Amino acid sequence: MPPPGFDKLKHIVVLMMENRSFDHMLGALKAVDARIEGLTGNEFNLDTNGKEAPVKAQAAFQGQLDPDPDHHFPGVDLQIFDGSMAPDRIPTMGGFVKSYFAERRDVRHSRLIMNYFTPEKLPVLTTLALEFAVFNGWFSSIPGPTLCNRAFAHYGTSFGHVGMNVFYPNTAIKSIYQRLDAAGKTAKIYYFDTKSSTMEVVNLLQHQPQFFGIHEQFLADCKAGQLPDYSFIEPNYSDHDGDAGALLASDQHPDHDVREGERLIASVYNAIKGNASLWESTALLITYDEHGGIYDHVGPPACTPDGFVSQPADTGTGKPFMFDRLGVRVPAILVSPWIPKGTVVPGAGAPGERNFEHASIPATVTSLFLGNYDERTAREKQAQTFLDLLTLNQMRVDAPDFVLA
Amino acid sequence: MAVIKVPKTPKRAFDKNRRPSALLLDQIAHLEWAALPASQRKPHQLPKRKVKTEAQAAERVGQLTALVLEAKAAEAVELPVGAPPVVTPVTLPPLPRVPPATRPTKRRRKPRTKAAKRRARR
Prior knowledge:
The complex is a heterodimer of chains A (405) and B (122).
Chain A (H helix, E strand, L loop, with lengths): L3 H5 L2 E7 L4 H5 L17 E3 L5 E3 L18 H9 L14 H9 L2 H4 L12 H9 L1 E3 L10 H10 L20 H7 L4 E5 L10 H6 L4 E3 H10 L5 E4 L6 E3 L2 E3 L10 H16 L2 H5 L1 E7 L23 H4 L16 E4 L7 E3 L14 H10 L8 H5 L18 E4 L1
Parallel strand pairs in A: 1-7, 1-10, 4-12, 5-6, 5-7
Antiparallel strand pairs in A: 2-3, 4-11, 8-9, 10-11
Helix pairs in contact in A: 3-4
Chain B lengths: L2 E4 L15 H14 L18 H22 L38 H8 L1
Helix pairs in contact in B: 1-2
């Protein structure tokens, strides 16, 4: 018999932020809970002068990662393999500083890529990580940029793309929204506002605009208890003027201020928790599309290929990519009152390891709402699902509250 | 039950004159692609426009999102039975002009008076 929390589950909400690695955001939590696969403080890369550049708890909210660190396929390959092209190469995670040096040719500046936040600087993300379930092994789907990684969250594949041009020639694999819709279920992508719009799924916006709403509508839907079965939330991707004044980007993409992303995460959590019946029937996943070129110490593991091949001209490394290896690790936290406080999901290399990636999102949503569904990639079918973490027999009443100043 | 205060992001974090990221430029290219009918698209030649600031990128994204949604709404208008679908050529609107934001000007210090200098020395 499934635990009561799973039985009561009616909604899944996913909030996907931008471009921060696990160690950068949550690495310091190892000092708080040794089970969290964060930083010991001894990790380092060599800079271009051959000197050790250690990790430092000196990440700034804004102003440190400008220019934007490289996170395109060849750049990430350098970060993971430190320039090795040997057939039996192993991910040393030793090329982050060298990769960032290429952006500004400034050795001192390149070492900033090793910086990480202390927990008190990120009260929302770190509190949720310690209160609910934090994944030690949630990886971006591709060692590459935003759009191909976001495609995995929507489709369970990027259709063979490792870059920013994703145009869906293959319509045999439907997005998770189309799958749910065809089965009489409800799904929505809430983008922040029209000026921020949606990222990656413009084809859906073009053909099925009924799947889209704005952030204000998400808040209203939570209040009214009208949240769809599945919701995907996009942050504000730019600083721009709104009707009520200046709107700060909340995606945490460098060089946007990380604090505004914290406020967004808190507001989504509050909106769900603010409606008691929604709180007991919703699982909220907070994750990041990719690491944004920022240091993480865990080597990405191999994975089930998804049947596509990206050619050397597209990878930019001189080698094809078979979609048989994951990208760099990103923060991921599952929130529900049915999850025991302090749950740490073991990741790569640990006993009982479970490695997740963005294909785990459509895999989980499909398994909950549709059951057996065959028209998807082998990669998605093999992806780990995460709802078994709702194990409590009684709902928690000690969940934290966030008060936005 | 813990209550955690989440501070306001300082106003100085807002910079709509920031250079737009490659991500925003790609988003614009994709929306421009979506706004054009299939016959006008060049799949491997995404349109490149000179968007210089984040504010201008946001305006362009808003403009194109509205265009994509309007095109879908127009498509939904019922045609007579048997009538071929009408494909109207689309001309993308020019980039919106966004006046550069003026940064808050620093207050000029008033020249110190002799009396003020004396007080400071005490």
